[in-house]
Amino acid sequence: MDDDLWSAVGDPTRRRMLDLLLNEGSGTATSLSEHLPVTRQAVAKHLAVLDRVGLVHATTAGREKQFRVDQAQLARAVAQLTDVGAAWDSRLQRIKRIAETIQRRKDTDGDSAPGTDTDTDADADADQKQ
């Protein structure tokens, strides 16, 4: 698991930037900032984080840098996310089964425990016979 990669994609602004770059094919800090509620400088900092983890790569185009998503690194991130999701799904299913087992035991034990409706009905029947 790559903590830096997860940290980079954990930010909603950076995820939105990745979406924009995927849709447009490439973009600059200026062009991305037009679609985001942050300044161009903030976009440049976010792009630096994405570049550092390899999710985007820059090429110089005149005075600006054009950023593109690295498809291989993005596929790696998706694969990691899929693995983590599967592991958590498995854990949650196990917890659900344990909780259901506990509830069934409570329900079963509760049916014969003193003070349940069944016992109250039996006590009432016994009182009527006396």
Explain this structure to me?
- With 130 residues, this protein is mainly alpha-helical.
- Helix content is 72%, strand content 9%.
- A two-stranded antiparallel ribbon has the order 1-2.
- β1 (56-61) and β2 (64-69) form a beta hairpin.
- The protein is elongated and about 80 Å long.
- The protein starts with a helix and ends with a helix.
- 15% of the residues are buried.
Write a brief structural summary.
With 130 residues, the protein is mainly alpha-helical. The chain is built from six helices and two strands.
Order of helices and strands: HHHHEEHH
How many β-strand runs? 2
* Unreliable residue stretches: 115-130
Estimated share of beta-strand residues: 5-15%
Q: Which strand order do you get reading across the main beta sheet?
A: 1-2
Mean pLDDT across every amino acid position: 85
Quickly count the helices: 6
Distance between the termini: 73 Å
Q: Please give the share of residues in helix.
A: over 70%
What is the radius of gyration?
A: 29 Å
Give a quick account of the main beta sheet: strands, pairing sense, barrel closure. Answer: 2 strands, antiparallel
Label the overall shape: elongated
Secondary-structure content class = mainly alpha
